[in-house]
Predict the 3D structure of the following.
Amino acid sequence: MGAPLERRRPGDPQGLMKDTRMRLLRWWFVLRQRIRTLVRPIAVERELDRELRYHLEREIQENLSRNMPPDEARRAALRSLDGLTAIQEECRDMRHVNHFENLFQDLRYALRAMGRNPGFTAGAGPGGSARTRGSAWGSALQPRAKHAILRR
Amino acid sequence: MSRPSDLIQGTLDLLILRTLSLKPKHGWAIAKRIQQSSGEVLQVTQGALYPALHRLEQQGWIRADWRTSETGREAKFYSLTRPGRAQLEKELAQWERLSSAVGQVILRA
């Protein structure tokens, strides 16, 4: 099934290894983010608040520097952040979209490709176990239907 | 760029990654940079920008840390991860292919 993909670079084990390294590294970043959202939800939420507040302050400053009266500067900045709650909500949603499923597919492909490459026969074992875990985790973390459009 | 369609969303991702390729920036600076370098044509609203940043962070293309900004306040700075840099290269190549293809059609159709 995935055969054409895996034959993409038949004579390029170094490119394949670089590819695999990138995938693993990315997988690590995603995992770290995911864990942080799960383990420190309050800190994550507070950061979102601080982040948007900083933006608001910069807008106000910019308006003031254009000689807008303070009251109006603030009002205009708030207007530009129209629907603050909606923005926060959308940012939150982004944290709960399942980016794992694709990554597991990615990882599976990478490990399998390594396993098939004569230089990486040792990779075949871990590939097998990642396959099993991949499907179990993948189905446990299905995204809600409304996010389907955001998945890549 | 307020309610991103699929096409716009992909383009916004590309613009954000490209803007971050030189040095880390916070959200406000990213929006300003895109606005300035597009000759004030592209206005990225917060409603499009912040969800995109959070999505790119979740996908492992960018990472964030808190640093002191040019105003002396702490701000959330985003930077490209190594996989993000590789992704930028891919997306730039795709974009060039797409825009030259569209150009060809406009010219010859």
User: Anything to note?
Assistant: The helical segments of chain B are 6-20, 27-37, 46-58, 82-108. DSSP finds four helices and three strands in chain B.
